[in-house]
Specification:
mainly beta, 6-stranded mixed beta sheet, 15 strands, globular, 7-stranded mixed beta sheet
Length: 257
């Protein structure tokens, strides 16, 4: 009988703002290396209003903004790593105006039954823990594999990425946000000397699953099964920048049509 291996110790990363320049996109260096060659390894990306170590915009703690949770696989210039993601979940700490500490790491159902229209390179997609609300049925966790998309690379990197639909914390009763966390597990897949990135994009109005450029993006990258030697990673922005470029590309095609 085969006994499943438990996930190993977690890696915690503080989110950083994604910046764009002529040379690429960046949100700082990866915060660590996930070695999932022998067993799955858990991670979390933290948006903390109090410490806010990287000075991200206050808009990420505005419950009336619309958010899209994003995850990506980034490969090196050679190879075609696929990274497996398991039980990716979004948590909120905060509360109401009367009781701003009412919620403590409350999971919000943000995943849809089918991936977003601008998700790319995904396979084996599944969702769990359904929650039915006034907006239909959404899910708390999602699992999927991401493979690089050839031809959409930035700075020599190709990445596959997946987005949730736009969601607004205030629709779930959250009026005050003090902490946001993205948590999940990397199972490895065929990843070797690759990277994964996780983050949030926020919108001032409901993107309604259309190709709308976000108003801001923040997140963090981690190395995955990195072997000795340099790995040119631009961070979470590599994926999120591709998302923005694809949105613009599709929007321009629509305009021409």
């Amino acid at each position: 009988m085969v006994v499943a291996q438990p996930a190993s110790a977690a890696i915690s990363c503080d989110a950083a703002t994604v910046t764009f320049s002529a040379g690429g996109v960046s949100n700082g260096s990866p915060c660590g290396n996930i070695d999932s060659t022998n067993a799955p390894e858990t991670f979390e990306v933290i948006f903390d209003k109090v410490t806010n170590l990287n000075g991200i915009s206050a808009d990420f703690f505005d419950p009336t903004k619309y958010f899209s949770l994003q995850a990506t696989s980034i490969k090196t210039p050679t190879g075609g790593a696929t990274i497996g993601f398991q039980n990716i979940e979004f948590f909120v700490t905060g509360g109401t105006l009367v009781d701003p500490t009412q919620f403590n790491d409350v999971s919000i159902a943000v995943w849809q039954a089918a991936p977003g229209v601008d998700s790319q390179g995904f396979s084996n997609y599944s969702v769990a823990n359904p929650v039915t609300n006034g907006f239909g049925t959404d899910y708390k966790t999602a699992s999927f594999d991401l493979a690089p998309i050839v031809g959409t690379g930035i700075g020599g990197l190709n990445g596959g990425f997946i987005n949730t639909k736009g969601f607004r914390p205030s629709d779930f009763g959250v009026q005050v946000i003090s902490n946001l966390r993205i948590k999940g597990t990397i199972t490895g897949g065929s990843a070797s000397n690759a990277a994964a990135a996780f983050g949030l994009a926020y919108f001032n109005t409901d993107p309604t699953m259309s190709m709308v450029a976000p108003s801001g993006i923040a997140g963090r990258a981690v190395d995955v099964n990195k072997v000795p030697g340099p790995l040119p990673i631009f961070g979470a922005g590599a994926a999120f920048g591709m998302s923005r470029k694809l949105r613009r590309r599709i929007a321009s095609k629509k305009a021409v049509a």
